[in-house]
Amino acid sequence: MKISSTDLIINPDGTIYHLNLLPEHIADTIITVGDPDRVKFVSQYFDSIEFQINKREFVTHTGCLNGKRLTVISSGIGTDNVEILMNELDALVNIDFKTLEVKSEHKSLNIIRLGTSGSLQESIPVNSFVISEWGIGLDALGFFYETEPNETTTIIKQNFNLEFMPYCNPSGYNLFRKFIENVPENWFTGATVTCPGFYAPQGRTLRYNPKIEGLLQKMNQFYHAGVKLANLEMETAGYYLMGQVLGHEVLSISAILANRMTNEFSQQADKQVDSLIKFALEKITGKAV
Hints:
Blueprint: E1 29-33, H1 39-43, E2 48-55, E3 58-65, E4 68-74, H2 79-94, E5 95-96, E6 101-102, E7 110-119, E8 129-137, H3 151-159, E9 167-170, H4 173-180, E10 187-194, H5 215-221, E11 223-224, E12 227-233, H6 236-246, E13 249-259, E14 264-265, H7 269-285
Parallel strand pairs: 1-4, 1-7, 7-13, 8-10, 10-12
Antiparallel strand pairs: 2-3, 3-4, 5-6, 7-12, 8-9, 8-13, 11-12, 13-14
């Protein structure tokens, strides 16, 4: 069945609407970051860069490192941007742009998000790292896509007194197993909470009274069927949802820059992000950076 030209918008130069990319511009392994300025901090370690482009908040660099072709691309902040990014990356490899028809053979991408985050547990300190086994979304994106129901979301809805149903999806199995092998002591795994904002949705109080009293404490104390909430940020659950819907392997890894239980913030944020980038590149290529 042919896809409508208003459902999949192609620019006059043949590129996809928001990302401004052609299928040949992306590698099978894609690193994503939130901040457009962070793209160059990843690609600086590439042996060569073959392609660069930017449009809106989406900055893309594709190149090679240790013989492996890689793409790094920024999403901007939030699951709304992640939804655009993931749909358009999928379209680049699974839809024929000339016929606007879905290709007969599905292609799965490996997508690794490298981000920053706040810890929900005193035992996960500032300047550590979290590999997200689960992504739990407290935003509305999950309402619009069909995924398998999860008992954890029902319990969270009840415990947090939410007026909507959260959504929950796992990381990509193969990527998760690969990245947790032989990790250092300051690396943790757990469920990551994705929030639709930085302030009240993450339990911050400025010039207002929060609608949900004690939100951080509820997150800190939550435990159900082996699931404990490790950290919170604004993209992971969107990636995991779209990975499940579209059939891609997705993994999110976060540098912990804040501990929300102890109110401590990292004094070496740039160093931690750089350590995260090097760790990921080593895992992907099999060689130290």
